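Incident log, structure service

09:12 report received: a user says their structure output differs between two submissions of the same chain.
09:20 pulled the input from the user's history:
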Amino acid sequence: MERKSVFKTSFYRMWEVTILVFLALGLIPIIVYQQGFTLGTMLGLFIGAFIATLFFVGMIGSPLLTLYFRIKQISIAECVACLQSKDETIVHSFAFNKLQSLKTSDALVSLVNLAQDKNIDTGLRKQVLSAIRKAGTHAREYVPMIVNILDSEEKTLRKEALKTLRLVTGLDFGEDAEQWRQHL
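09:34 re-ran on a clean worker, output below:
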């Protein structure tokens, strides 16, 4: 079983419950119709069931899933494996938030490694650099690894790395990675 299956399983369970809620609420119009109510009443109840299901997903389902991930003891390796996968799902968001919320040196190392991983989407790498900035001076020991990102071909990624370096070190040597390396 893959490590990311913890996330996927929970995510799919939420959708299974959502479908069951929709089906249960969808039965109300059918029962009402069998009791002799009009087709308009049945349609109105069905639309109400649909809206109630959307409410469940948006207002209840997502926060419940977030809470589940915060409570559940999910390892850093599981979060990293999920983020390294090519799946484009909301599960990435939950894994990233979980990793960011751990606030341990192991989590910070994992974030720095993810920021350096060229196989990961640039947008996610920028998010990771933003999370490292939130760690502030606690990320100081990882500055040499962050400097390596200045060698990236992606201009937006270099800008994020530079912002992170400026905040973490209080220094500014521009995008010149060699100058950063000399002064560290």
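09:41 both user submissions now match this output. Likely a transient worker issue. Closing.
09:42 reviewer note: Residues 103-183 form one domain. The first helix runs from residue 5 to 34.
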